[in-house]
User: What shape does this take?
Amino acid sequence: MEIRNVKERLIEIILERSFKYSDDPPFTLVSGRKSNYYFNCKPTTLDPEAMNLIGEILFAMLADAEVTAAGGLTLGADPIANALSVISFQKGKPIRSFIVRKDVKDHGMMSGIEGNVRPGERVAILDDVITTGGSTINAIVRAREAGLVIDRVIALIDREEESGRENIEAHVARVDAVLTRTEIMSRYRGKGIGALNTVKE
Assistant: This one.
């Protein structure tokens, strides 16, 4: 399946499982701001078909990158990184997944990173949604503290607001997104499926 078709199918799954819209904004974002739409990516990123699609897209996006591993802040990045890892192995160019802990362990090796990665490795930082960019920046800082070299950031969805992408670009040169809010909203309105996912008071 061509990547364009893979993305189209992924948008369908996101609209079905992970996207909600309301004209009377009931959703409170992590920043405290109200929004009339909301993405809960877990029902998508933990779905077998969607994980396969995400892995295919991420692998294609990293075709020109010499990265050996990819990961981000738990929990949002974990299924995305694992999807990429499995697909990359199947395609003969393994990219290992790793987890960035929210809190460093207070015992054992006291590591903030879990996975088979070593200082000096070139990696991609992943996230499910960019809003303010805070969780992504946290992952970047932790990864650099562990000696990893950040090649780029890839988010599943860029909400295109609150200067999220710009905030991240202050820490890393390249920020990409599998999908943007504009792309998803275009399909949402164009297909006339708003009533299916509209929250009513």
User: Anything to note?
Assistant: Strands lie at 19-21, 27-28, 34-35, 37-39, 69-73, 96-100, 113-114, 122-130, 149-158, 175-180. The longest strand covers residues 149-158. The first helix runs from residue 3 to 17. Residues 3-197 form a domain with the Rossmann fold fold (CATH 3.40.50.2020).
